[in-house]
Amino acid sequence: MNCHDTTITVRFNEVDSYRVAWHGHYVAWMEVGRNELAARFGLAADQLAEAGYLGPVVTLELKYLRPARFNERLTVRTTVRRNETPTLEFRSVILGGDGKPVARGVTVHALTDLHGTTQYRLPAVIAPRLEQMLAWAEAP
Fold this sequence. Notes:
- By secondary structure, the chain is of the alpha+beta class.
- The protein has helices at residues 24-39, 45-50, 127-138; strands at residues 4-9, 53-54, 57-64, 73-81, 88-95, 101-109, 112-113.
């Protein structure tokens, strides 16, 4: 399975009074990785909106494995998983500077039109983009 890697450096404003990255920033880092991957296939948040659709998060799972610290270089490794429903499921592993996992997460995104109406079938403009991204991810 193919993954997209994004490098993040933990900034000073991202650490808390315990001198570790505040837990909410892990979600933001996953978003950066997810949008970079999706953009390669015309499915980033702004690209979806230009096509007339939105991809709100409907599920977020995050497992913290160890703390990230100030100035640590992280790798957000992101891939996409095929679903039977018209949703986008992204899986992320955040790796620390030593290459060991810091956190693992999943986000699932429903598709809606710009008025918030849920799409129960993949829109014709979105389906080929998603299929191309899934084929890339599933390639050996």
